[in-house]
Amino acid sequence: MMFRKAQAKDVPAIVQMLADDELGQTREIYTDPLPANYYQAFENIDRDSNQELIVVENDKLQLIGTLQLSFIPYLTYQGGIRAQIEAVRVHKEHRSEGIGKAFFLWAISRAKERGAHLLQLTTDKKRPDALRFYENLGFKATHEGMKLPL
52 by DSSP, 3-state: which? Predict the structure, then answer.
């Protein structure tokens, strides 16, 4: 497996993985060609030094996973950095192969490398398997998360 920063050419494969899930089907549009807003979003992420859109390739150079790491500088914790992990997906044909765990161990290492004191994530309550997976990696449900759709 190889972890690397995503490139514009990877956007269709990333969107396909994001859309290929019960919840993703309700919010993503995977068509050929892709809507331009996905490429604009990629450019915004790519330009921002506090954002890292990461993909994992197998030995055949196929994209088999993706995640986004955001680094949030703030004043608390003496000007600390908080890392946020989002949009984690492993291609459906490669689940249960240990890729998710390897990806998270890589992300934890990367967050430490960038000086983050905390790595946080949210998971939808409709994904109990994901919740167990995160707990097995050492994540703790220490706060109650809330969202306001805009």
Answer: strand
